[in-house]
């Protein structure tokens, strides 16, 4: 397997994002906080990470929730998956929201999300007057049932 090279500038005092196991799809990213941050129920905040990326235009970086953080604390990434475009050079921030019924405190260095790098396919949109029919048609939003 060939690996894409992604450049990283880290202004964080924590380790760079890493794969936690050989089979991990995402790299955990850590919060960079001057002091603990408490999120009330339904409160959201942009959490800094101190990292900056540069990647090939054939890639995007997706910011995804960590399942353990979602299950144990009710925290998730609000715009899941968040997209970091190849031409973005600013700090990677993570929009976290507290969906639990209790306040949750984040600590500096806590693993708050995971970064997954994905191939991007560019397309040309072609304006037409109608689309071909399909078995499903325009059925959506649960139209195929739940069982």
Can you give keywords for this protein?
single chain, 147 residues, mainly beta, Deoxyuridine 5'-Triphosphate Nucleotidohydrolase, Chain A, five-stranded antiparallel beta sheet, 11 strands, 5% helix
Question: Could you explain how this protein is built, in words?
Answer:
The chain is mostly beta strands and 147 residues long. The chain has one domain: Deoxyuridine triphosphatase (dUTPase) (Deoxyuridine 5'-Triphosphate Nucleotidohydrolase, Chain A, Distorted Sandwich), CATH 2.70.40.10. It contains 1 helix and 11 strands. The strands form 3 sheets. It has a 5-stranded antiparallel beta sheet, with no helix packed on it. It has a 4-stranded antiparallel beta sheet with strand order 1-5-9-7. A hairpin with a 7-residue loop joins strand 2 and strand 3.
